[in-house]
Amino acid sequence: MKLLFVCLGNICRSPMAEGIMNERIKKHGLLWTVDSAGTERYHVGERPDPRAIAQCRLHGIDIASKRARQISRQDFNRFDLLFALATDVQQELVELAPHAASKIHLLLDVLYPGENRSVPDPWYGNEADFAHAYDLIDRACDALVQVYAPR
Asked: For this structure, is 121 an active site residue?
C-alpha cells in the first residue's frame, strides 16, 4: 500500500503525518510506503517547521531530513490513498484530479466519520498547537493501521 499525506505547504501537518506513519509501519512490520506533499509551492525544498521537528522528536520520530515538495499529477496514479489534512486541501485535490476522487480522503474521517474535520493548521500558533495537531494525526495514523492493515 502506498499512502500520501497532503497539507498546504508540506512543512507542518503532512510531514508529521509521514513521520508518524513511518513509525507505525516499522512497529507493525507493514509493507507500506508513505510520503507527503503540499498543494502549494510556498516552501518547496525547505525542511519542516522547527516546531514540527521538535514535536516529532519528543515522540522519538525524526523528520528533520524531510524536504517540502508540491504534489504532482503523477502522485494521483502512484499512490493508493491520499489523505488530506484539511477540508480545503481535500477539495483542491479532488479539483486537481477528479478521476482519483475515490482515492482522496480527509484524514480525520477515520476518527470522526462524516464530520469533515480538519487538523488545525499550527503554523500561526505555538508549541501547544503543534502538540494538538500531532495528537490528532497520531490517533488517526493508529486508526488507519487498524482499518487498512491486513489481519
From this structure: yes
Q: Assess whether 138 carries a catalytic annotation.
A: no
Range of the domain at 132: 2-148
pLDDT-based confidence at residue 15 (cuts at 50, 70, 90): very high
Catalytic residue (one of 12, 13, 24, 138): 13
Q: Which residue in the list 35, 49, 75, 121 is annotated as catalytic?
A: 121
Kindly report the CA angle at 112 between 109 and 114, in degrees rounded to 5?
Answer: 70
Q: Which of 30, 45, 22, 2 is nearest to 137 (CA)?
A: 22
Q: Is 75 a catalytic residue?
A: no
Longest distance between any two alpha carbons in the chain, whole Å: 40
Domain count, the chain: 1
What mean pLDDT value characterizes the chain?
A: 97
Q: What is the CATH number of the domain that holds 73?
A: 3.40.50.2300
pLDDT in tens, 56-94: 999 999 999 999 999 999 999 999 999 999 999 999 999
Q: Which three cell numbers stand for residue 54?
A: 521538535
